[in-house]
Design a protein that fits this description.
Elements: E1 5-6, H1 16-24, H2 44-60, E2 67-72, H3 75-87, E3 92-97, H4 100-109, E4 115-121, E5 145-148, E6 150-151, E7 156-157, E8 173-176, E9 193-197, E10 208-213, H5 230-235, H6 245-259, E11 262-263, E12 266-267, H7 269-288, E13 293-294, E14 306-311, H8 317-326, E15 329-330, E16 341-344, H9 351-368
Parallel strand pairs: 1-15, 3-4, 3-5, 5-8, 8-9
Antiparallel strand pairs: 2-10, 6-7, 9-10, 11-12, 13-14, 14-16
Bound molecules: 4'-deoxy-4'-aminopyridoxal-5'-phosphate.
Family: Belongs to the class-V pyridoxal-phosphate-dependent aminotransferase family. SerC subfamily.
Cofactor: pyridoxal 5'-phosphate
Subcellular location: Cytoplasm
């Protein structure tokens, strides 16, 4: 039986193969007599799961050895506090505000940093474009510069990470990649720290992944909770406190699935990137070619993962969503702060799912346009 296509922004669809494997191992993980949720995080069974997940993520995203991978809890919002607690040294920090999530991040940082400088903002365009890095005004001596590389609500994405050194800025780049982690390769030479919740592209909610360059660890403010001090987390291999064991297991299964994906000659993340480009092109092309639907984001800044769109006749919104549900196209309602619709097309969404949505968009427009 074919499952419906789930366009949720997160928690979001998980590859069916991953769910099936987890179901098959639910009561007895590989002959251990225990399900993964029942295992001690310090036992040899879970340690092997943890090591495979970490190695899988490192290899998938080609993370260099000078970066630590931390499996934490608290989600992206907790990292908005944990990052300044660890990296700000109570000095000034810079933010580039490109939508709701970076806006939230800079507000939270004000509790911990002596000064927050907005180095650039897309607010004047209502976050439909990204400010060109050449126009950014980073401050001198900032502890870091924070960006959200994919704004889940506004639907804007940096298709390339900024090269801060080329802008004359030597602050490390902090990247919130919550909503497009593992959808494309990462140029780690430009990154100091990247963080993201797992619940969009990687697995269930409850796991937060932090990738941090070794030299940035060990400067936490005295008030930083021990469980959130990157030094303690790193030195204890993410087991200073009990880690989100189920999330780590599911992430490992997803990394394994991702590594096996191919598109022509490409495999792993390169294949996912190609597939994600094709999916986004199909959906945006349909929206742009229609009289009924529209997307407000400037084409070069459009997210490949989160596609917000609107019906010119908003009175049709409920009928649109009801018809979509009937066709097995779930969770297309837009975020409450912006309204309209949003299709999130993360890694687990196949091209066939986007094609099914596009077919529905055409049919609905024919019936109501
Ligand atoms: N950053 C981004 C880009 C997000 O999309 C989200 C969640 N939608 C968050 C941060 C917050 O994550 P969490 O709810 O896991 O704290």
């Amino acid at each position: 039986m074919q499952r419906p296509y789930n366009f949720s922004a997160g928690p979001a669809a998980i590859p069916e193969e991953v769910l099936q494997r987890a179901a098959a191992e639910m009561l007895d993980w590989q002959g251990s007599g225990m399900g993964v949720m029942e295992m001690s995080h310090r036992g040899k069974e879970f340690l092997s799961i943890y090591e495979a997940a970490e190695a899988g993520f490192r290899s998938l995203l080609s993370i260099p050895p000078e970066f630590k991978i931390l499996f934490m809890q608290g989600g992206g919002l907790a990292e908005n506090a944990i990052v300044p607690l660890n990296l700000s040294r109570a000095a000034g920090v810079d933010f580039v505000v490109t939508g709701s999530w970076s806006q939230k991040s800079q507000k939270e940082a004000r509790k911990y940093a002596s000064e927050v400088n907005i180095a650039a903002s897309g607010e004047t365009s209502s976050f439909t474009t990204l400010p060109d890095p050449a126009s950014w005004t980073p401050s001198v001596g900032a502890s870091y510069l924070h960006i959200c590389s994919n704004e889940t609500i506004n639907g804007v994405e940096f298709h390339e990470l900024p090269d801060l050194r080329a802008l004359g800025c030597d602050a490390p780049l902090v990247v919130d990649f919550s909503s497009h982690v593992a959808s494309r390769p990462v140029d780690w030479s430009r990154v100091g720290l990247a963080f993201g919740g797992a619940q969009k592209n990687i697995g269930p909610a409850g796991l937060t992944i932090v990738v941090v360059r070794e030299d940035l660890i060990g400067q936490a403010l005295p008030a930083c909770p021990s469980a959130f001090d990157y030094r303690l987390v790193a030195d204890n291999h993410s087991m200073y406190n009990t880690p989100p064991t189920w999330g780590i297991y599911m992430a490992g299964l997803t990394f394994d699935w991702l590594a096996r994906q191919t598109e022509g000659e490409a495999h792993g993340i390169a294949a996912m990137e190609q597939r994600n480009i094709a999916k986004a092109a199909l959906l945006y092309g349909t929206i742009d070619g229609s009289q009924l639907y529209y997307n407000k984001v400037s084409p070069p800044c459009r997210s490949r993962m989160n596609v917000p769109f609107f019906l010119r006749n908003e009175a049709l919104n409920d009928a649109f969503l009801a018809g979509a549900r009937e066709r097995g196209l779930l969770q297309l309602k837009g975020h409450k702060s912006v309204g309209g619709m949003r299709a999130s097309i993360y890694n687990a969404m196949p091209l066939a799912g986007v094609q099914a949505l596009v077919d529905y968009l055409h049919d609905f427009e024919k019936a109501h346009g």
